[in-house]
Design a protein that fits this description.
The chain is an all-alpha fold. The chain is 80% helix and 0% strand.
Length: 191
């Protein structure tokens, strides 16, 4: 063999060892990437103050129906990044589904500071006010939703149309509940 060159068998063995070590490391890392929850938990643990990881973990937990855990992760995310529009919407969803309507209403007011023109917030607010028995307060919020363009209610045109339909129906029912049947006719007719 030439001086300074390794024998082929030794080179092949070293290369095989490197490949095995890298394969093992990849296998270990892949366990963390197997599912979204594990990935975001690891990201949240690995980097202190990682609002993105907490927000995404909250979203995953929300999708799984683990509402308490989702709300906690989303509260953490918003403590770290209070201007996250998506974080506010996800927390409002979690709180609403938990039946924490007053806290969800507070979340809407915080989100409104970020996007005062967002009719989606009026849509959520109206539903929560009705759920809290505050029907009279829901009427102006529903009227604002119905005066909005669909794109102001939701970016997805189908979801915007659904929200507008639901707002008309809710406004009609709310007006009936408030003893104002004459005013309830127009929203029902428009639905």
């Amino acid at each position: 063999a030439e001086r300074g060159r390794l024998p082929r068998a030794l080179t092949a063995g070293a290369a095989a060892t490197v490949v095995l070590v890298l394969a093992a490391a990849t296998h270990l890392q892949a366990r963390h990437w197997r599912d979204s929850e594990a990935l975001f938990r690891r990201a949240a643990a690995a980097v202190e103050g990682n609002a993105w990881a907490h927000e995404n973990l909250g979203h995953v937990l929300l999708q799984q129906g683990r509402l308490q855990a989702a709300a906690q992760e989303l509260r953490t995310a918003l403590a770290l990044a209070p201007d996250s529009w998506r974080g506010h919407l996800l927390l409002i969803d979690a709180l609403t589904r938990l039946g924490l309507h007053e806290e969800a209403l507070y979340g809407i007011e915080r989100a409104r500071r970020l996007r005062p023109e967002a009719a989606l917030l009026d849509y959520y607010r109206a539903g929560l006010l009705v759920a809290c028995g505050r029907r009279a307060e829901a009427v102006p919020a529903l009227q604002r939703v119905l005066q909005s363009r669909p794109g102001q209610v939701h970016a997805d045109p189908r979801l915007a149309q659904e929200a507008l339909f639901e707002s008309r129906m809710l406004l009609g029912r709310t007006l009936l509940d408030l003893g104002r049947p004459g005013e309830a006719v127009a929203p029902f007719a428009a639905a």
